[in-house]
Amino acid sequence: MTDQAEHPHPRSTQPPVRLPLSGDTPLEPPAVWEELRARCPVAHATLPSGDTAVYLTRYDDVRGLLSDPRFVRPTEQDNAARMAPEGAGGAAATGSSAIATPNRGEPHQRWRRQVGRYFTAKRMTALRPGMTRLAESLVDTMLADGAPADLRASLGFPFPVYVICDLLGVPAEDRDRFSGWSDSFLSVTRYSADEIRTAQAEFVAYMSGHIAAKRAAPADDLLSVLITQSEEAGGAGSEVEGGGLSDEELVSTGMGLLVAGHETTANSIGKMVSLLLADRGRWESLLADPSLVRTAVEESLRFDSNLGFGLRRYLGEDAEIGGQVVPEGSTVVCSMPAANRDERAFTGADAMDLARTPNPHLTFGVGPHSCLGQALARTELQVVLEVLLARVPTLRLAVPAAELRKTEGLLVGGLSEVPVSW
């Protein structure tokens, strides 16, 4: 890693912001976003490592950069700003090539084509009845155990974990191990270098063994399908156009999807329910008109100010952003939640409009690197909300929204617990 000072940054009169930012409460946006969007949309930010990056907060700038296929997430090979302090970053924070999915060019497009075939809206619709039964079972158990309850522990965490374990054909009884591995994967400051190395080695070994077992005895889960497709396409790791995925890519895919199923979707469930309960009128609107569930889910995704750091992009060449030239070698942090509150893109951006349509939020990214699992995440959020409205109409937060606590030290944002009563 060379000195970040070697890389020039666009001129700015605004002092660098220090990431991660925080709002007055875990559900409120940092006040500085509005100021940055108005006066310094291409800002400097100091990362937890101490390195400096460019920080984008306007919708058009964030969307434009994320849509540009020239710019991708940093890897260990790039002279990029480090996200985490030395030794504290997990694979998602450091761009570790050991377990990262293909990131650039044709290998990335090939990987997306292979995996994306499984995550279609049609396929997710077919899975919906099973998801509904699972959510109902978890909610019934929560109700039987009595109030108050932690919605994150009772439903928000186990629901997407069971779903992704089923999709990947991995044993759900190993979910506690997956949780620790997922946190280490997303660590910015939570774990030491030794803890991360140990967890990564265990995670890779586990998933490698799982891939080998699926190759020997394929089933109808996603990883079995990918293995079969790879073999039919000319063998795993084939370099021919349209060839199959290598074992390393299969392992990376399984690990990445398990992480997404644990932290990101679990966090989204807790934050969505908290946002809807923080203002009782929102919950009552949905009880009165359950047809609003789909648009309410999208608005919850847009309104979520606690997404984490945002998506990083490494500039391999100069780029014009917001009327400024950001030089080659810069690392750019795209703040999707700040962009999602931009009045230039959303009328009444700071109001939660459960019927908002269209709603082109950037929570799942956009362009060639947008989230492959977004159809799954949307379906899970809709199912959870439908089941809670039907089974627990009197649901309420058991503590004031201001007393909810954010998760700390990870690349993604969330709530450590969601205390509820009914």
From TrEMBL:
Keywords: Heme, Iron, Metal-binding, Monooxygenase, Oxidoreductase. Transmembrane segments: none annotated. CDD domains: Cyp158A-like. Residues 1-28, 84-107 are annotated as: Disordered. Pfam families: p450 (PF00067). Its cofactor is heme. Belongs to the cytochrome P450 family. This is Cytochrome P450. It comes from Streptomyces endophyticus. The lineage of its organism: Bacteria, Bacillati, Actinomycetota, Actinomycetes, Kitasatosporales.
